[in-house]
Structures are given as C-alpha cells and as structure tokens.
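Holo prediction. Input below; ligand is P-hydroxybenzoic acid.
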Amino acid sequence: MKKTSRFFRLALLASATALMVPLASAQATGKLKVGLMLPYTGTYAALGTAIENGFKLYIDEHGGKLGGREVEYIKVDDESNPAKATDNVNKLIKRDNVDVVVGTVHSGVVMAMAKVANDTNTLLIVPNAGANAVTGPLCSNNIYRSSFSNWQPAYAMGEAAAKKGYKKAVTITWKYGAGEESVGGFKESFEKGGGKVVKELSLPFPNVEFQALLTEIAAMKPDVVYTFFAGGGAVKFVKDYAAAGLKGKIPLIGAGFLTDGTLDAQGADASGLQTALHYADSLNTKRDNDFRLAYAKAFKLQPDVYAVQGYDAGQILGAGLAAVKGDVSKKAEFAAAVERAKFDSPRGMFTLSKAHNPVQDFYLRQVSGVENKSIGLASKALADPARGCKL
Ligand code: PHB
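Structure of the complex:
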C-alpha cells in the first residue's frame, strides 16, 4: 500500500516534470511592451531623445524584435522631475502593463524607478542615470545599467588630475544626487593621489545662474576646477566660464558629460577642455564607425554617449531575452545570461558586474573642433565598487 502510493507520487511528479520541461523552454508570444521613461522636455531633453534613438536603432537592426517578440513602445516624459517619478513609473507598470521599463537620465528620478521596479518585480534597464545606489543597495535581478555609476567617470578624472600634478581643486555642480556623487568620486581619487578639494560649490538643479559662483572661483584661484554638468546646463556653464575670463587661466575639467552632445552649441568656448568618459568621438574602430554611420543615416544627427547607452540598453535586453525566449518572468536565467555576456559596444567591449553595472574603460578626452578626441586611457576596465550591493 505504502509502496503503491509512493509509486503514484513518483509517477505524478515525473509527469509534472515532463509537462514543465516543454513549458520552461517555450517561446513567449505576444508583443513585448517596452516603457520608455525619459526626459523629453527640460535641460536633459536632448539626452532623452538620443537614448530613445539609440535604443530603437538596435531594435530596428534586429527586425523590430527582441527574444522573438515584436517590440511595442509606450512613452512617458519624466521631465527630470523626481517629485513625479513614482506616479510616472507606476503608470507604465500598473496602467500600461509594460514588460520592461527603459529609463532614465536623472539620478533623482531613477531612485524612485528602481524602488518601484524592485517592489513590483519589474525589469528595469537604466540607459543613463548614474545614481550609485541603483547598482549598490538597490541592486537586484530586476535592474541593469548600460551606462555608468556617478562614481566611475569622476574617479577616473580624479586619478588623471592628480597625475597631472594639480594640487588644489574647486568643484562646482548641481546640488542633487548625480552632482554630489560625481564630486565624491573625484575627491576620492584626487585626494588619494595627493590633491585636495578646497571648496565644493553648488547650485540647485537645473539652475544656470553661475555668475556669483564663477566670481568666487576667480577669487580662490585653484589649480583646477572639476565639474559635473550635462545637457543644456553644460552648454551654458562652458560659455559662462569663458565669458567670465576664466578659460585659459584656470583649467576646467569634468565628467565627460560637460562636453558630450553639446559641442555644436558650445563652439570655441569648449576647445581644449579635458574630460573623462566611457566614450569618445574618434575611436575609429569598425564597430564604432558602423554605429555612427547607421545612426547618422537613421536620425540625421551625430551620435553621442547617450545614443550609445540607449543602443547598449537594447543589447543588454536582447541578450537577456534571447536566453529566456522572451519570458521576462525568468529573472534568474535572464541575469545569468547577461552576467555571462560580453557586449560589443561602440564604446569598446564591456561586461556587467555582479551588481549589473558596466565594467569598462574610461577615455581621457580633449575637445578639438566639434569632437571629444581620445588622448589616452584614464582608467582601464574600471568597476564601480558596488558598495552596499548584496547580490
Ligand atoms: C544623472 O542625473 O545621473 C545624470 C544626468 C545627466 C548626465 C549624467 C548623469 O549626463
């Protein structure tokens, strides 16, 4: 009697397993709903558009499909406004039932998105926002980043600045997560290399009234000024720095966002500026040349770092979805595939760390004409320390 029931239980188990095997490897069907949550207005508007373009270029190169499913887009303008971020991401997840969210640019906005993604077990691919916590305490199998942590380019620039022999630095940035973490990364390596940050200046995001702060810098006469600005604000800062008579007197350096996607508008005021970033304009590799040509053809625009990050968000999603045949619920298998992958990016090869942040080279760049030319490597295969990540 006992034997028989054990036999039946085993038989049941075997048939259940047999049933599960084909189900587990089945191709998911129906459209893949991608929620694009990006800034389409405000100082970061051009960054949002470049990310969307890059992402769509990758999908189009793959026949409009990922993981065997046709891709459908649902867009939200997040306005780079953290106060609206939770509502905005909930609209995509709860109202529109998206399978994956791709976004965003602003560190304050992505913090809310990452919390909701973890609470609702939703896949989130971050194509820019560098908030350290996203691949730190908030890291999970729901979250991947195709860009950088705020610590990374700043740390690379701090090392290069110390090597140049600068001793006394003043920093200036917007007072929010990205600016503060960028200054933190710079300070860490610059001071380790023997320099000292003597003053940290800031103004609220996205203000561009720089005059009073530039007057303070002129009076302090540091060896170098380190900055984090991006988008429309970066254009204005570089122009105001020159107009204040500081260009050529006190070297201005930064995370490379200061001069990326901005050079047409900054003109001669940007010439000679040195920055560190995971992309540069004249890498002249076949991979990058092909990407730049395809992007220029499709959008009648030159690509920048944001376009590359959007494209690589597509690559990460593509690698994960191929492994799970389009089934976004298989988080562990998705993660395993992405962690194994080597991404052939226009920026150069990169991998994702266990915390799902790119491990990548940082170029030291110098502005020449309308290009950020690589003048060497500031840091090779630099990994974010992922402080607080428990994966
Ligand atoms: C950010 O808020 O994390 C941020 C925004 C713009 C950039 C880089 C980082 O170019």
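The longest helix spans residues 2-24. That is the main takeaway for now.
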